[in-house]
Amino acid sequence: MSARILVVDDVQANVRLLEVRLKAEYFDVRTARGGEEALRIARSERIDVVLLDIMMPGLSGFDVCKALKSDPKTAPIPIVIVTALDGPQDRVRALECGADDFLTKPVSEVALFARVKSLARLKATTDELQVRANAMESVGIDPSAILTQEMPVGGRVLVVDDLASTIDKAKAALGPKTVMETAATAEEAMTLAASRDFDLIITSRQLPGADGLRLCSDLKSIDRSRFTPILMATEPDDLEALRRALEMGVNDYVLRPINEDELRARARTQIRRKHYADCLRNLVNDAVEMAVKDPLTGLYNRRYLDSHLRSLLERSADNGEPVSLLMFDIDLFKSVNDVHGHASGDAVLVEFAERLKDGVRGINLVARFGGEEFIIVMPGTDLEEATTIADRLRCEVAGKPFSHKSMPDLEMTVSVGVAAFRGDGDSADGLILRADKALYAAKRDGRNRVVAEAA
Q1: Which of 19, 262, 351, 372 is catalytic?
Q2: What is this structure's pTM?
Q3: What distance, in Å, lies between the first and last C-alpha atoms of the chain?
Q4: What is the mean pLDDT of the chain?
């Protein structure tokens, strides 16, 4: 899908010029002649990048930028200010309003296309994360709220440059609440980036004995700094290198001589974007975990158990390693809910889950099968050993009352069924069914006992 660019300018000639140039590069272009129209389009259509003029009747570009960035629906859209104003104070104001970049008319084609392509890729990545994070809405978490939460103060920044003047300006721009580390060479930078997490890396285009572009490529290739934004300091006439830098994943740039206010604003923008992307990734990870975890006990659920068990049995069939399965049922559990309430019942389930996890090795999978039934999958364990472990766990449950503030101490027991994988021809469903039958026999024969499947 081609990136969709919204061009906003009240001068028709300017709009037409940018539209023709962008369409020649196969972008999908929408246009607006004023701020109100731009806001309407951005809120109703998928827009990947906004090219925004400042001086317009009615809403100025600054006003439009603030409005877009204050709306969770449009805040992720990258904004490039395109204007005849070229003073440092104008760039800083645009960046402080939330703009991602500032291009001065007449706009260089190299700078325009490099910036638009870079920001469009960033938007595509953010959109993909947003789609995945939207799964959290089903459990009452709104991922768009990330955009309106308070921005963390400071951060950890790595500055890569051998010039003392650059280091001093970066220190002044970033302020005392930012933890700043420095590296004079590419080798030092790679060592630091591989050993700790940074919120931003500021690097020079020219480094002693190394190519700054190569360093950026290397930083994007290692896991720890793969998603860390990179801000490159470069010379105004080094446009070809700048184009290549943006295409390889450099997130932003600042031209020498470096203006402290502009560096501060650009650094804050990148750190904010890093924070937003990290929060989205964490939401995605949480969504994945919630899909396979039982929310009450924190154990794996039936969905994960089925998948894990099938894979484990396939490996067992190949290598001949034994696998056993223990199925637990808390005896007379319904009476806990009936007599003491569901809060007490939940407390018993949570404590029982903790006892099972604490009672077996980490290699074993502990899962909640449903209700008061739990399963332990034990690779490398034969039927006899599994039965011994099951009886030890049964005795530990019976020997220590369950205690919680919502109920008096309760003496509980469990019944356990044990089954072992039979190799080729057996299945996960068959293994679970045999353990369930053994569990039924344990409960039928008086509860508080372990029964293994018949050999």
Answers
A1: 372
A2: 0.62
A3: 60
A4: 89
